[in-house]
Known about the structure:
Blueprint: E1 2-7, H1 15-29, E2 33-38, H2 52-55, H3 65-74, E3 77-83, H4 91-98, E4 117-123, H5 133-145, E5 149-156, H6 169-195
Helix pairs in contact: 1-6
Bound molecules: flavin mononucleotide.
Amino acid sequence: MKVIGFSGSPRKGANTDRLVSHVLAGAQSAGAETAFFRIADLNIKGCISCYYCKSHDTCSIKDDMQGLYKEMLGADAVVIGSPVYMGQMTGQTKTFVDRLLPLLNADFTTRLTKRPALVLAFTQGQPDTGMFLPYMESTKQMLAFMGFAAKEIVVAGATREKADVDQQTDLTARAKALGAGLLGASIAKIKRKTLAPL
Ligand SMILES: Cc1cc2nc3c(=O)[nH]c(=O)nc-3n(C[C@H](O)[C@H](O)[C@H](O)COP(=O)(O)O)c2cc1C
């Protein structure tokens, strides 16, 4: 089982990296292999709307997304984390998400054959964790359309200093439990496949 996590925070080692890492730690404690990627540290260019990916199974831009597509196609679960900037994901995260277009065939069916479970992890300065939920829900629906089995949204509020999230022990425990649960979701999926009539 492989669980991969992305953080779209430009601030290294800060709340978003930490929140995603808590989810991954939970997955790891349940036996998953994990990998963590910091979007802002990678070479990821903006989509150029060439639609190469509709006649080919990858993107025309030869940058770090090429490796990430492979990672995503092989993953059983994916965690995408971002700070809230101006009520939305960061620009770095959005550039990454735009570049997920090659995960769709020309007829809008998904190329994600494993249908990885998805957790969205947001951090925000605003203490009210419900404030940006409509935006987060619509992001979740969009990623479900891309072929992810979108599961949960975890939100850390009142995160300003780099490690504020670690003070919220109920939340970090929930993040770890979500990570461990991702593995269960994958196992249940495999069992369902095994039991399906031929
Ligand atoms: C440019 C910018 C815009 C932000 N916009 C919002 C916002 O709209 N709502 C909010 O609650 N917090 C906002 N914040 C606060 C961050 O979401 C919060 O501090 C978050 O934890 C930062 O992530 P990090 O700790 O991984 O760097 C903003 C911060 C920055 C730097």
